[in-house]
Amino acid sequence: MSSSGSQPSIFSRIIAREIPATIVAETEHIIAFLDIAPKAPVHVVVTTKDPQYQNVVELAAGNSALLAELVAVAEQIAAERTNGQFRLVFNTGAAAGQTVFHVHAHVMGSPELTDHLGEDSLGTL
Ligand code: 5GP
Predict the structure, then answer these.
(1) Using the 8-state DSSP alphabet, how is residue 95 labeled?
(2) CA-CA distance, 48 to 100, in Å (whole number)?
(3) Active site (annotated) includes residue 106
(4) Of the residues 2, 9, 10, 48, which should be mutated to test ligand 1's pocket, given the most ligand atoms within 8 Å of the CB?
(5) Which of 20, 34, 109, 114 has the fewest Cβ atoms surrounding its Cβ within 10 A?
(6) Burial letters 31-43, b for 16+ CB under 10 A, else e
(7) For residue 49, with 0-12 CB atoms within 10 Å meaning exposed, 13-18 middle and 19 or more buried, which class applies?
(8) Tens digit of pLDDT for each residue in 12-52?
(9) Whose CA is nearest to atom 12 of ligand 1?
């Protein structure tokens, strides 16, 4: 679903509390919630409340301070929920696996100590 279309994205509906999600962090501009279909022991979606940017490239060009705020929230979530080593994934484009066109990052990691972050421990999107 495109944020530029007539209907709000699924993330806008979560932000509006129209559909439930387990929200784990929220600031004035950013919200984070558990992914409904986790691909890792820790899998949190971090997104902007502003729906105008469809992907990280648009966000970087349009509001780099907001991108920095999103990354800071992601880092805080990782510090709280993972062993400190994590993936921060921005799928960009449908062919790359993006399904929600409202910019977001995936924080993926494990709370356990592990000597690698391979596909077997974190999976793929
Ligand atoms: P993308 O595929 O666009 O990179 O990531 C979208 C993510 O949003 C997917 O990992 C998907 O599981 C998650 N997702 C889609 N719909 C919902 C929902 O209604 N609630 C939550 N919590 N996550 C969702």
Answers:
(1) G
(2) 12
(3) no
(4) 10
(5) 20
(6) bbbebeeeebbbb
(7) middle
(8) 999 999 999 999 999 999 999 999 999 999 999 999 999 99
(9) 37
Predicted confidence band at 120 (pLDDT cuts at 50, 70, 90)? low
Strand partners, 105: 46
Nearest-angstrom CA–CA distance, 9 and 25: 19
Measured in angstroms, how far is the CA atom of residue 75 from the centroid of ligand 1? 19
The full set of domains in the chain, from first to last, is 10-115 (3.30.428.10)
Per-residue model confidence (pLDDT) at position 113: 82
| Sheet containing strand 23-26, strands side by side | 23-26, 30-34, 42-48, 104-109, 86-89
- H helices of the chain, where? 10-15, 56-62, 64-81, 119-122
Q: Name the pLDDT band for 3 (thresholds 50, 70, 90).
A: very low
Are 107 and 117 in contact by the 8 Å Cβ rule? The answer is no
How does pLDDT run across 54-75, given as a tens digit for each residue? 999 999 999 999 999 999 999 9
